[in-house]
Amino acid sequence: MSYQARIIVIALVSLVAAAFLGPVPAPAEFFNLPPLPPPGKYGNILIDRLSTKNGVKPAAFSHWLHREKYTCRVCHSELEFNMKVNTTEITEAANVAGKYCGACHNGRIAFGQDQCKKCHNGEIGRGEEKLAQLLLRPLVRTDYGDGIDWVASLRKGTVAPLTYLKTQSKEPPYDRELSLEAEWVKFPPAVFPHKAHSEWLACSNCHPEVFNIKKKTTLHFSMPLILKGEFCGVCHLSVAFPMNDCKRCHPGYTSKNIMR
After folding, report:
1. Radius of gyration, CA atoms only, the chain
2. CA–CA dist 6, 185 (Å, integer)
3. Which of 12, 46, 148, 204 is in Cβ range 3.0-4.6 Å of 58 for a Cys bridge?
4. Which H or E element spans position 9?
5. Same domain, 45 and 84
6. How many CA atoms, within 13 angstroms, populate the side-chain half-sphere of residue 185?
7. What is the mean pLDDT of residues 37-61?
8. What is the pLDDT, as a whole number, of residue 212?
């Protein structure tokens, strides 16, 4: 069944059931959610903008391994890594000059660039055994993604990532919580907490490139687009907690299912 057909089924079933059963969740299987990798590989990417073309293995990068040490804004704002993989013009010359990876991988903060195979190994699961060591700490756990609730762990104080290398953010705190209505009858709205995001990210990571609110408002957000890697899908398909964790965004979601 195509995605469009599934949406029609959900809408029709919801309309009929709403009158008799009250709030109705949309079964997760209708959304064609991507399969999740093992926790140790979740958030791992291969950086391969030029490597393969130049006869070099892609560089493996683990988000959870770095997230323990730095907030997202350090790389994606201060060091100017784009939010989407393989769109940043990382070069060996730039790294040697102290940009991008070279800001830390200089032999002082982290291992130096002479240890090429530590990154350029083409193995997306490289280092996943280190997750077991990380999980020995009293982190807040979750059943999704890499198994760590990073927002809760940060607030609990069991992780204390640096928020900058040289340039401290001057953005004012912003904790407005948005309620975004769902497309389906009686399905609970998505709740977007700015505070949980601003504790890790810079405002410029999302606005205006990912979310151009002034131009388009929030009325155009949809699951089909998110599942294509737009809007929330930029992070919540592969790095931040995955779309399978429905209640994290839709706290009113219930496991009761009209199909039973």
Report:
1. 20
2. 15
3. 46
4. helix 3-21
5. yes
6. 15
7. 96
8. 86
